[in-house]
Amino acid sequence: MKKTLAFLSVLGLSFAAPVLAQAADSAEYNSNGQITFEPNTDPTNPISPTDPDPENPIKPVDPTDPDGPNPGTNGPLSIDFASSLYFGTQKITSKTEVYHAETQKYVDSANVNQEGPNFVQVTDNRGTESGWTLNVRQNGQFKTAEDQELTAAQIRLTKGTVVTPSLSPKPSNVSATITLNPNGAQSLVMSAQDGEGAGTYLMSWGDSLAAAMDSIELEVPGSTTKYASQYNTTFTWLLTDTPTNP
Asked: By its UniProt entry, which Pfam families does this protein fall under (predicted)?
């Protein structure tokens, strides 16, 4: 009888013990994310010199060519645009005069006529941030179609300012003032060192429309013979993948 009671007691204790909850199932799994960039050889559209935004490209007007400006060069390291310099129609005088280039006219992305500083635009889409150099040269003195030269005339580009939508550091070697040599010697515009200059950069002569009104000068001596004719010259902008030391 005692054995039976003892057995029943053990059974009773077994039924009284708490029931443990079953552990929830869980798991972890890792997957990957990846993107690869490559150099972009497509041309880059010009953007505003006062509000540089690649999402809102502009259409510059060339005052010297009714057909419009020359197209930009192909990438990945490209010159996208450079302003033509138009000094208007002036009266002949025996005094030394300084004439100012008209500002850059353009049509914005909303198809509204605008104007701003004259500028040159460079884009580096190589994906290396390894630097570059932009130079300019004047290809001879102003001349008429009859080869009559505007002797000793000189162009100065002042108030040079670099603007960009890029987060890459701006070019550290910049010419705030450039006096062009009509004999064809190159002048430095700006140069990005290693670790600088990835993306789109503009050298703007003046940081606003008001500043641009007198930022580019053509000085003509009073002693220079001036014929009642149109004078022209050209400029070549040269972009290389080699940085220039400050």
From this structure: WxL
Task: Work out the burial of residue 233: count CB atoms within 10 Å of its CB; fewer than 13 is exposed, 13-18 middle, 19 or more buried.
Answer: middle
Q: Are 44 and 75 in contact (CB under 8 A)?
A: yes
Closest to 239 in 3D by CA, of 164, 112, 133: 133
pLDDT tens for each residue of 186-209: 999 999 999 999 999 999 999 999
Longest distance between any two alpha carbons in the chain, whole Å? 142
Residue 90 DSSP SS3: coil
- Residue 30 resides in a domain: no
Whether 28 is in a domain gets the answer no
How many whole angstroms from its chain centre is CA 43?
A: 13
Give the integer Cα–Cα distance in Å for 135 and 237: 6
The domain of 94 spans: 40-240
Say how many C-beta atoms besides its own lie within 10 A of residue 176's C-beta. Answer: 13
Strand partners, 13: none
DSSP-based three-state secondary structure for 143: strand
Whether 83 is in a domain gets the answer: yes
Judge if the upstream peptide bond of residue 76 is cis by omega within 30 degrees of 0.
yes
Name which of 122, 127, 41 is nearest 76 in CA terms: 41
Average model confidence (pLDDT) across the chain: 92
Taking only the tens place, the pLDDT of each residue in 66-95 is 999 999 999 999 999 999 999 999 999 999
Domain total for the chain? 1
Is residue 203 in a domain? yes
Alpha-carbon gap, residue 100 to 170, rounded angstroms: 28
